[in-house]
Amino acid sequence: MKLSSVLDPAGSRAPSPGAGGQAGQEAGAGVSGRQRVASLVQRQGVLAVLLLVVLIASFVYPTFATLDNARGVTVQASFLAIVALGMTMVIITGGIDLSVGSVFALGGVLAAWASQWGVLPALLVPLVVCGAIGALNGVLIARVGMAPFIVTLASLLGARGLLLAITDEGATTYLVPKDSAFAELGQGSVWGFGYPILIALALFAAGGVVLQRTSFGQTLFAVGGSSDAAVLMGLPVARVRLTVYLLSGLLAGLAGAINAARLSSGVTIIGVGMELDAIAAVVIGGTLLVGGAGSLSGTLWGVLLLAVIQNLINQIGSLNSSYQSVVSGGFLIVVVVAQRYLARSRRTA
Amino acid sequence: MTTHAPAAPGRSLPRLPGPAWFQEYGVYAAVAALLLFNAFFTEHFLTADNLRTQLIQVAPVVIVALGMALVIGTEGVDLSVGSAMALAAAVLPLYLGYGLVPALLIALLAGAVVGAVNGTLVSVVGLQPIVATLALFVGGRGIALVMADGQLKQIANPDLLALGTGSFLGIPLVVLIAGVLALAVAFLVHRTTFGRQVVAIGGNRPAAALAGLPVKRVLTGVYILCGVLAALAGILATARLTASDPSSLGNLMELSAITAVVVGGTPLSGGSIRVLGTVAGALLMQLLRATLVKHDLPDSTAQIAQAAIIIVAVYVARERRSR
């Protein structure tokens, strides 16, 4: 579990009881056993649920616990994971980014279109355009002071409109040239594990370091905990908030580009509702939507849990895919209600 | 903070419209401007037929947006309205065998249950509205699909068809229903205790609680109303289509409804509800799209234009608040 310890070292932020109680929690002094259990469940509860589901599924469905299936599930999950990585950072600052689904689709189409000129354009074009959309979100939210919900709602529409405009209202599908090295980025693999998985893991490792070991990361938590206090402390609040929306746009665009490489084409009807899947994964992973607390490892387990549920429902076969959303929705309710009560018990204990 | 600044003394000349004017009347001015533009530059736009079509298309959005306006007035948001529509549509054909009225009541009840779950999660459990309603957004459509076996069902009930396509004194029933509901919600907000409590809770929840208002009950009530209105919109859409289609009915409706509310001038931060503005906001978006389509501009342009309007509307609203 080396990766996990980078992503979520012991004593990483959990919602602090009262204001700024981080030091007390890390030392563990004066923290009751009940509080410690609650904190552990809140941070690693999803991992426990994930392991439990995987364990039971391995016994019940022989086709589940195969290497091939594991590869398939994780490749599928890696795109949502990359998007959810950016979303986690946004949500830690107390914001939200509804535009990621549209930006993901836009990134894919741009990448497929630009791939005719080689790998570099195929990556640069989506990153530049999607980064610009993220930056625009960030400017409107951090500098102009508009609500994240509504700004990113508008860019959800705008990015989808842009996507339709460059594909002749969805009539043109751009294909990635067959012999392109860009296609390799989505389809290649190391020991059978596709590049998308490795890219997602590398990004999460880097994100974990940024979040836990840099002043930028610490500022995110401070801004989410109390934006006013962060301003008074002289932290570059506006710049940091702008940066997280920029990152979110870049990551969504990158995920879209890699997905296009994997599918060998820019699919226009993809990514609808992806923002809510990403938010669900982040929330299930224990990051609080009010901001100020959260972890990337939790998000990773949240994404995997959603992916495993989807895979299991496919395995069962007799259930149609509508059960997937029922189960995901159920998980979401259980997790957030449990979080709520755990947070409450920690405060009162 | 939201009251008007008193007019400067000694100023008798008519003042030019400022940001406050646009915040107050901008959405109506925009609707009027669009109609005027179309009167001159678009053929066959200001005809009874076309206006009827536009009104019929916007009616479900208006009905959902009315509920959304109430929720946003409490500083909440309801992402699950599309799922509530789908659920009502899925339930309707299952009970049509018992007669139209029981089936309609049960479909509305389904919306009320969705709202009650949302309301309980928000008021009793204390979840953020966006999380609380996200769960049913994700799961609600799934439940609807499971109930309907994932299938589109044709409905051949003449009474239901009449509800969807009939008209009264030349006005389509769906438009009439939306209009009456708008008046009813306006009355609710401005003339009843419940409406005052909703606005008070949205303005300052701790203060409302200290003043002894039944915060939990009012919040739950607001979400139930929103769910019921969404279910009604789902029923009307189903009646028009003469088919129950839980997989696509109400998709992205939460976005359209929130857009209508926000463009209509209701702040997302709660404490104020503009019912007429919400109706105008929905109309503006509908007319904008129709205008662009009639001028052979593609859907993509319409979406980008809608995005721009949302940003402008919220920017204007922000100007006023910071005064």
From TrEMBL, chain A:
Main location per the UniProt record: membrane
Pfam families cross-referenced by the UniProt entry: BPD_transp_2
Region of interest: Disordered: 1-27
Gene Ontology terms: cellular component: plasma membrane
Identification of the protein by name: Ribose/xylose/arabinose/galactoside ABC transporter permease
Membrane-topology annotation of the record: Multi-pass membrane protein
Subcellular location(s) per record: Cell membrane
UniProtKB/TrEMBL annotation, chain B:
Keywords, sorted A to Z: Cell membrane, Membrane, Transmembrane, Transmembrane helix
Coiled coil: none
Record's keyword annotation contains Lipoprotein: no
Keyword Cell membrane: yes
InterPro entries found in the cross-reference section: ABC_transp_permease
Pfam families: BPD_transp_2
Cellular component GO terms held in the UniProt record: plasma membrane
Location within or outside the cell: Cell membrane
GO molecular function, one term: transmembrane transporter activity
Membrane topology: Multi-pass membrane protein
PANTHER family: ABC TRANSPORTER PERMEASE PROTEIN YPHD-RELATED-RELATED, GALACTOFURANOSE TRANSPORTER PERMEASE PROTEIN YTFT
Protein name: Ribose transport system permease rbsC
Organism: Streptomyces pristinaespiralis (strain ATCC 25486 / DSM 40338 / CBS 914.69 / JCM 4507 / KCC S-0507 / NBRC 13074 / NRRL 2958 / 5647)
